[in-house]
Inverse folding.
């Protein structure tokens, strides 16, 4: 069995068992490194769609044996053309569970734990267990959330230098048709997701007059149902793009409107794509970007080569072109940087803190949600999570933060720039007036 196993990992051994000129600073080749990779390295894959399926397969074949995957979606027929781990009999089942099962069936020795839930439902202890987080997402909001979680572990020393042991590495992949990107994020060292969020193109918007009076395409009918009819029929009820019943309602209304104007092409899949701004994926692009992300995860875990610095763009529209760009970290970033300082009283409630943050000139957030060390203190939406965290609003923030005299929280909310609304995350350093480290240490020691 040992000989078979050695033969199985011969390609991996070419990287891990011999020295090189491009290796990381602390790289020490040897069989022990391979054993440590397989025994101790723990990777979280966020998303089990087109890119996520490829990531699970590539990571398992690269020597990672301890993998977990989280995804809230179930398998749809439209997924089968590119999400290769799924079959027709899997339609309606959780993506994470089916993907984990299929990879474990084909790659012996790997253990993949699936989580069928929203990423917001996991607390800080869950995310703290992983050495690397690999993102296979199609949502800017979800990326921002995971980025905020990873950056919440980051601590700075007295010279505002990141403490290496608190850095939670991330590898972010994304595809759009025949184009894709891969990014290595080392919070505090390289740009985080928020530092380079400007790289994402603005979402396509349709004039309301066109939607209401002269729709000319299936997308116009869908957006009319989404932006106009939903509010008319539901009287302020928040629309949840991840709720299948809400998407089904939009689809039905759009189909009726399309029939009225003689427009064809409205499908459930297109409705999802328009509402969630999803660009159709190409299987080959997913495979290419996933291979880059898996290799970067291997580099981070073993130091067998220097990591990507720090953004790779792939374009397969006309020929094949890849280019690497080294973006610079934004020192004033309110997510991965030291953050905005706010001094408040220890009796300040969470609701009062949210009000103060909304008035702060540097934050400029409306309707913010609050996260502390990955734990959701208060979430504005969806309604079920808002209800679950509503009771925290009347509690002192000092108590909710575990009576820590100085620490950081993350706020995510809406900002308006050039008359355009967007969702973003801000980091706030909290200092409670009149409370020192010594006081809280004595309080803890006394058991009170």
């Amino acid at each position: 069995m040992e000989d078979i196993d050695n033969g199985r990992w011969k390609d991996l051994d070419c990287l891990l068992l011999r020295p090189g000129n491009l290796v990381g600073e602390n790289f020490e080749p040897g069989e022990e490194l391979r054993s440590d990779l397989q025994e101790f390295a723990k990777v979280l894959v966020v998303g089990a769609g087109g890119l996520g399926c490829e990531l699970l397969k590539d990571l398992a074949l690269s020597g990672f044996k301890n993998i977990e995957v989280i995804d809230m979606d179930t398998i749809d027929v439209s997924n089968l053309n590119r999400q290769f781990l799924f079959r027709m009999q899997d339609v309606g089942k959780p993506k994470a569970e089916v993907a984990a099962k299929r990879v474990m069936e084909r790659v012996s020795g790997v253990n993949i734990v699936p989580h069928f839930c929203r990423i917001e439902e996991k607390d800080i202890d869950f995310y703290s267990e992983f050495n690397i987080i690999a993102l296979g997402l199609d949502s800017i909001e979800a990326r921002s959330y995971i980025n905020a979680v990873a950056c919440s572990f980051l601590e700075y020393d007295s010279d505002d230098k990141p403490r290496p042991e608190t850095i939670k590495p991330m590898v972010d992949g994304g595809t759009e048709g025949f184009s894709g990107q891969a990014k290595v994020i080392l919070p505090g060292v390289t740009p985080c997701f928020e530092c380079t969020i400007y790289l994402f193109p603005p979402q396509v918007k349709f004039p309301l007059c066109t939607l209401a009076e002269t729709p000319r395409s299936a997308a116009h009918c869908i957006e009319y149902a989404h932006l106009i009819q939903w509010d008319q029929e539901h009287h302020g009820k928040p629309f949840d793009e991840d709720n299948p019943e809400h998407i089904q309602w939009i689809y039905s209304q759009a189909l009726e409107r399309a029939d009225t104007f003689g427009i064809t092409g409205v499908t459930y899949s297109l409705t999802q794509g328009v509402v969630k701004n999803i660009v159709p994926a190409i299987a080959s692009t997913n495979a290419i970007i996933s291979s880059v992300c898996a290799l970067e995860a291997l580099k981070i875990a073993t130091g067998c080569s220097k990591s990507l610095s720090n953004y790779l763009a792939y374009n397969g529209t006309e020929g094949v072109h890849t280019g690497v760009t080294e973006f610079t970290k934004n020192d004033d970033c309110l997510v991965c940087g030291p953050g905005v300082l706010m001094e408040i009283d220890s009796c300040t409630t969470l609701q009062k803190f949210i009000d103060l943050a909304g008035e702060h000139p540097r934050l400029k957030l409306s309707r913010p949600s609050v996260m502390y060390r990955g734990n959701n203190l208060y979430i504005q939406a969806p309604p079920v999570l808002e209800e679950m965290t509503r009771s925290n609003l009347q509690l002192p923030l000092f108590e909710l933060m575990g009576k820590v005299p100085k620490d950081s929280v993350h706020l995510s909310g809406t900002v308006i720039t050039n008359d355009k609304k967007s969702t973003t995350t801000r980091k706030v350093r909290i200092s409670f007036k009149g409370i020192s480290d010594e006081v809280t240490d004595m309080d803890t020691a006394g058991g009170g």
Observations:
- The chain has a mean pLDDT of 85.
- The longest strand covers residues 420-432.
- The first helix runs from residue 2 to 8.
- Residues 208-275 form a domain with the Arc Repressor Mutant, subunit A fold (CATH 1.10.10.520).
